[in-house]
Amino acid sequence: MQRELNGLLYVDKPIGVTSHDVVAVVRRAARAKRVGHAGTLDPFATGLLVVAVGTYTRLLPYIVGEPKVYDTCIRFGAETDTDDCTGSVVAVRPTPTWEAVEVDGRLHDAIQSLTGQIAQVPPAYSAKHVEGKRAHALARAGNMVVLPPVNVSVHAWSALQREGDQLRARITCGGGTYVRALARDLGRAMNSAAHCAELRRVSSGTANVSQAVPLDALSPGSVDDGRVRLRSPLEIMGDVAHEVLSDEGLQALGFGRAVRATLPGARAALLRRDVSSGALTVVGIGERTPADRWLPKVVLLDNAS
Q: The pTM is what?
């Protein structure tokens, strides 16, 4: 029986493809049953999608995906029902004159109002739940969807470029922030209307799109046969202890028992070292107990490679 692969893949998602589509491509490329992703990208968006293969799908909750960095193009003059370029126009307002907003500080003030901890109303066409149903499903069925504000973090707007009816910007933010909604609200704050015309995820935590594989490079079996290599989750698990287990520790972990903690920290990636290659494999996640032991929260020992 073929042993299941375990690892991470950074994929550069093209426009017009869903995150679910990417998972399907990776599943065929890795010939794996278990594949999942961290952080959905809308079909109109491009860029970094972190995909986990095999048992490492269980590590997705422990992957550090913040801050997130996006490059966006905001188009003024029209607001859409989806807050992006795929929707129907619901409001039309004059496009700002950049010389004027420079003089009166309107752009600066609008961006300042959308920076820091802010209360953001998610787009009606989003994956938020409303009475057990997805908001986008209700909106597409013709229902009026009004979502309550959610507190989000917007760290910075940078690389601003103004031309015609467009503003290009790099936005650094926390998880759960909708750049589409930032575009909509920026238009309103400038007495105009706006929507997100382009969106590209540049990075998520320490993972960067420059490290990603183009989706069209993932042919059937290309991960399984090693043409495309999987990455270690240790790269993006953040500040956790890297506890290499002894044979005794591995045996204890296999039974779900706590193992001795020799390193500081509240959480550890529990590792097995390959005798021949010296390579480290994540075989579990542990949290420190008062007795200085790692209590297993995730055990991957049986199927880890």
A: 0.92
Contacts of 280 (CB under 8 A, 6+ apart): 232, 234, 242, 244, 271, 272, 273, 274
Query: Is 107 among the domain residues?
Result: yes
Burial profile 256-285: b = 16 or more Cβ within 10 angstroms, e = fewer: eebbebeeebebbbbbbeeeeeeeebbbbb
Span 250-286, pLDDT tens digits: 999 999 999 999 999 999 999 999 988 889 999 999 9
Say if 305 falls within a structural domain. no
Structural domain of 183 = 68-204
Residue 165 appears among annotated catalytic residues: no
From the candidates 12, 21, 42, 109, give the one annotated as an active-site residue. 42
Task: Looking at the structure, tell me whether residues 86 and 48 fall in a common domain.
Answer: no
Contact 183, 195 (CB under 8 A): yes
pLDDT at 303: 41
Q: How many CB atoms lie within 10 A of CB 37?
A: 20
Do 121 and 29 lie in one domain? The reply is no
Helix ranges restricted to H, the chain? 19-30, 98-104, 106-113, 135-140, 179-189, 247-254
Identify the DSSP state of 60.
Answer: G
